[in-house]
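1st attempt posting a full record on here, be nice pls
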Amino acid sequence: QVQLVESGGGLVQAGGSLRLSCAASGRTFRISAMGWFRQAPGKEREFVAAISWSGGTYYADSVKGRFIISGDNAKNTVYLQMKSLKPEDTADYYCAASPRGVYYTWSSWDYWGQGTQVTVSS
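the predicted structure (as tokens):
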């Protein structure tokens, strides 16, 4: 089993920044990719960003240029640096891990954190 623990969510003004962290523990040898999804009330969970163990990164068009995903393999931790935040970024953000690789659909990921709230005020 893999456990994911997220931190860094909170309330921020539009244009501000937040840095989310996700630390993986347990059977981390199973992990080949980690990523972030988000879900706003009444909307589907959507892909935000992902990183493979080798360092390849992937971004949704809506966040490209504003968000940066990075990882520390030694710490089994992935980060999401969010800049120029918009009210549209308000959502519950979920960390995910996959033993197979990067997918853009949330149902293809095996392990999930409990979610952390990000609220961007205008």
